[in-house]
Amino acid sequence: MKVRRGNRPAFETLVTKYNRPVINMIFHTINDPVEAEDLAQNVFVQIWKTRSRYKPTAKFSTWLFTIARNMCLNEIRRRARHRAESLDQPPKETADGAEQPVQVADPSAMTADDAALRVELYAQVEVALRALPEVQRTAMMLLRHKEMPYEDIAKVLGCSLSATKSIIHRARDTLRMRLKPYLRS
Fold this sequence. Notes:
The chain is 65% helix and 0% strand. The protein has seven helices and no strands.
């Protein structure tokens, strides 16, 4: 691999290809768009620094998302030790006290009622996803947003394929139960 040998243009190509998926994965884990961009940059710095350790036996994306997941876990641990509230702007909240999700679909092609229902459903899905344990949330995000195969998800999570399938099954059951009132039969 060219990047392992220090080829900067090849590395820049990888950054261009994976930057948005890494930012999205981090955002879905820590729910902070500014911090997601900073952590993504740190992921690529780490990739560059440790490029000689990459073994082509695993997919590059698996290695990359493993590093991104570990950075997310470190950030979650850091936040738990150093709780801080933003002094600039309090988080927006829904009527039930949950934080308003940052990303909302463009409802312009729908009626106002349909758009409102869709926004509410997306908000509830985001709340339900954030409520999942970290390992389940990460597995679901990799499965849905990155369309990563179970085998690669297992490598990112550092567990067996059967454990990964179980994690995803439990996450789906939990989401189904929490979102049941919002889903049509």
